[in-house]
């Protein structure tokens, strides 16, 4: 029997992302070797709202407070992922 190791990732949604998702926080169980790309794909599946998908497409992502622009960036166990949509005025 195969063992599927997972880790948690606390996702915090801000501004338009929170509004489109109807929540400010989600805790995901992601694969042990999760990347930003796989975690965002899982987040899309869990929330599953067209408006949220559109916001994600324009968002910046912070992992443990550091901006991440590489989709294949690995995530550490028990990480925090912040979804930061574009803000008006700056």
What does this protein look like?
This protein is of the alpha+beta class and 90 residues long. It contains three helices and five strands, in the order E-H-E-H-H-E-E-E. The protein has helices at residues 15-21, 36-47, 50-58, and strands at 6-13, 25-31, 60-63, 66-68, 79-84. Strands 2-1-5-3-4 form a five-stranded mixed β-sheet. Strand 3 and strand 4 form a beta hairpin. The N and C termini lie far apart (52 Å). The model has no long low-confidence stretch (mean pLDDT 90).
Q: What's the alpha carbon Rg, rounded to whole Å?
A: 13 Å
In percent, how helical is the residue content?
A: 25-40%
Low-confidence spans: none
H/E series: EHEHHEEE
The gist of it:
With about 90 residues, this protein is an alpha+beta fold.
SSE blueprint and pairings:
Elements: E1 6-13, H1 15-21, E2 25-31, H2 36-47, H3 50-58, E3 60-63, E4 66-68, E5 79-84
Parallel strand pairs: 1-5
Antiparallel strand pairs: 1-2, 3-4, 3-5
List its traits:
alpha+beta; 3 helices; 5 strands; five-stranded mixed beta sheet; 90 residues; 31% strand
């Amino acid at each position: 029997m195969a063992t599927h190791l997972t880790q948690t990732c606390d996702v915090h949604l801000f501004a338009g992302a929170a509004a489109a998702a109807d929540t400010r926080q989600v805790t995901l169980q992601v694969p042990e070797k999760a990347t930003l790309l796989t975690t965002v794909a899982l987040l899309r599946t869990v929330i599953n709202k067209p408006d949220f998908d559109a916001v994600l497409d324009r968002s910046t992502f912070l992992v443990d407070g550091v901006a991440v622009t590489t989709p294949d960036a690995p995530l550490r166990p028990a990480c925090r992922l912040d979804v930061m949509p574009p803000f008006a005025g700056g």
